[in-house]
Specification:
Elements: H1 3-27, H2 38-42, H3 45-54, H4 58-69, E1 72-76, E2 79-82, H5 85-91, E3 99-100, H6 102-105, H7 120-134, H8 136-141, H9 143-158, E4 165-166, H10 167-184, H11 199-216, H12 218-226, H13 229-235, H14 240-258, H15 272-276, H16 290-321, H17 323-336, H18 346-349, H19 353-365, E5 375-376, E6 382-384, E7 387-389, E8 394-396, H20 400-403, H21 425-429, H22 445-462, E9 463-467, E10 476-480, E11 482-486, E12 491-496
Parallel strand pairs: 2-8
Antiparallel strand pairs: 1-2, 3-5, 4-12, 5-8, 6-7, 9-12, 10-11
Helix pairs in contact: 3-11, 9-10, 9-22, 10-16, 11-12, 11-14, 12-13, 13-14, 14-16, 16-17, 16-19, 16-22
This protein binds protoporphyrin IX containing FE (HEM).
């Protein structure tokens, strides 16, 4: 056989294997009885096509598929998606310690982090240590850091001197500065970037669609992540900014790990390094290596920056486009905070009913983490939505199907803070799942709440804010795990209030 024949035979053998495997998936796979598009059952390329080529957003596709095929659908050869809100709590709850699914969760290059560990036990060990930075009490102690950044944000708005503020960038700058100050003791100072277009925020935004490609092609991810930084910048310009960030974080980590005295030079002792580098926090007294510390840092940056920024942006969008909401929020804040020179404590803000309603509604209406959070059903199988799902199957559900359920939230597409003030409000709390539920729920939720209380309070008490005319009429996004936004950014004209 000559070389051409060898290549042709190899390709033919591969095509035969691929078609055979697809036919097995269609007719003999344990999930063969579940409804859904034939192409999705045949091959994972269906999902890859929507994510990477059509780029229309898989959650939007899933929504259409549920209308066509019902409440339980097969969205990949080994994957099911559910639409009934009750099923969300069957998958994500404190009794289900199911593994995370590898292709997605190892696509971010954070395998050894609280977010990236697949197994419950590994994640629990890491989260137990980090909870000393993120517990309610720890966040109370760190209130000053969040407040300081909320003030910095408002001052940066004032400096715009009549030019509109890009709220998409500005809120992300704020959340990045909070995380980098609190977790690493080294603020990125993104808020003070010209027009809030901080390179780190732009870099994180540009890298989102690349991670989707990584999910479908691990070889591509390994090539970009493991090749030398200079080459990686050329092959993948979208992740070039991330490479810079990686270099900076790695240098800081090397600094604190090579000489523990350097920890003392950090401005406060609540950084993640103070906890993660303390051998007494580990049964075997072994602290994680620099690679794992880097991955944890990256996970916290991605986990806490876009999510909080997005929630603030969505909330602000509705406040600015609904005069009644703007007025009620302002009035409540003015009453609780009569003298601008004497800002209220977080405790006081946490007791303001309308502000609470605004925040909960911002969380509900914001995509937050938009994609389904895939979990692997344990070997014994499980019953979900009344159907037996065999062990090893991947199951997931996007929070969108809970938050926009008409059965739970009447008029679910309307932003209505009052729904959280009525007699049924408490029963709704169970269905606010933006931080997910169960052992893998968000580690940073106390921090996120504090950021939302303080930022909404400072922005809407100390400034008059008006939507700028170039802003979109509605916010549009697709899921790339987190949301990726299209079209013009939300912008606002701001003027400081005098009293
Ligand atoms: C409104 C803001 C936030 C939202 C909507 C949000 C949402 C979520 C969700 C849905 C998960 C579960 C992900 C999964 O199962 O794969 C999660 C996990 C996580 N979040 Fe957040 N998050 C927010 C803020 C934060 C902040 C401020 C931090 C910390 C700086 C943070 C750190 C994490 C980490 C480390 C995990 C992984 C936990 C695990 O896998 O066990 N998040 N978050």
């Amino acid at each position: 056989m000559d070389a051409t024949q060898i290549v042709a035979t190899t390709i033919l053998a591969w095509v035969i294997w691929w078609v055979g495997h697809g036919l097995y998936n269609l007719y003999f796979h344990p999930l063969a009885g579940f409804p859904g598009p034939k192409l999705a059952a045949f091959s994972g390329l269906y999902k890859a096509w929507i994510d990477c080529v059509a780029q229309t957003g898989f959650v939007w596709t899933i929504k259409k598929l549920h209308k066509q095929y019902g409440e339980v659908i097969r969205v990949g050869p080994n994957e099911l998606h559910f639409s009934q809100p009750a099923t969300y709590l069957e998958i994500y709850n404190n009794h289900s310690r199911w593994d995370k699914e590898e292709a997605l969760y190892h696509s971010f290059g954070e395998d050894r982090s609280s977010f990236g560990y697949l197994a419950y036990k590994d994640a629990k060990d890491r989260k137990d240590i980090l909870s000393r930075v993120f517990s309610r009490r720890a966040i109370r102690d760190a209130e000053g850091i969040v407040r300081e950044n909320a003030v910095k944000l408002c001052k940066s708005f004032e400096r715009m001197q009549g030019r509109p503020v890009d709220l998409f960038y500005a809120y992300r700058c704020f959340s990045i500065d909070v995380i980098t100050s609190l977790c690493f003791g080294n603020s990125a100072n993104a808020i003070n970037a010209p027009d809030h277009k901080a390179p780190i925020v732009v870099a994180m935004d540009a890298s989102l669609p690349v991670f989707v490609r990584f999910k479908h092609a691990a070889w591509y991810k390994n090539m970009i992540i493991h090749c030398p930084p200079k080459l990686s910048r050329i092959i993948s310009p979208e992740t070039a900014g991330l490479v810079d960030l990686q270099q900076e974080l790695k240098a800081q980590i090397a600094d604190v790990t090579n000489n523990s005295d350097n920890l003392k030079k950090l401005p406060h002792s609540t950084t993640i390094y103070h906890q993660l580098l303390d051998p007494n926090n580990y049964r075997d007294k072994q602290v994680p290596d620099q690679g794992s510390l880097y991955e944890e840092s990256q996970a916290l940056m991605f986990g806490g920056a876009d999510t909080t920024g997005t929630t603030l942006m969505h909330g602000t969008f509705y406040i600015l486009t609904m005069p009644e909401v703007y007025k009620k929020l302002k009035e409540e804040l003015q009453e609780a905070w009569p003298n601008l020179e004497q800002p209220p404590t977080l405790d006081t803000l946490e007791a303001l009913p309308y502000l609470i309603g605004v925040i909960k509604e911002s969380m509900r209406m914001s995509p937050g983490v938009f994609s389904p959070l895939p979990r692997v059903v344990p070997p014994v199988g499980a019953t979900l939505a009344g159907k037996f799902v065999p062990g090893g199957s991947v199951v997931g559900m996007s929070s969108h199907f809970v938050h926009r359920s008409e059965e739970i939230f009447e008029n679910s597409n309307a932003f209505d803070p009052e729904r959280w003030l009525g007699p049924n409000a408490q029963s709704l709390d169970k269905w606010l799942v933006n931080f997910s539920r169960g052992p893998r729920m968000c580690l940073g939720f106390n921090l996120a709440w504090a950021e939302l209380y303080l930022t909404f309070a400072y922005v809407f008490r100390s400034l008059e804010v008006e939507i700028e005319s170039s802003s979109p009429k509605e916010l549009k996004w697709r899921d790339v795990f987190l949301p990726e936004y299209f079209g013009p950014h939300l912008k606002a004209n701001v003027t400081p209030v005098t009293s």
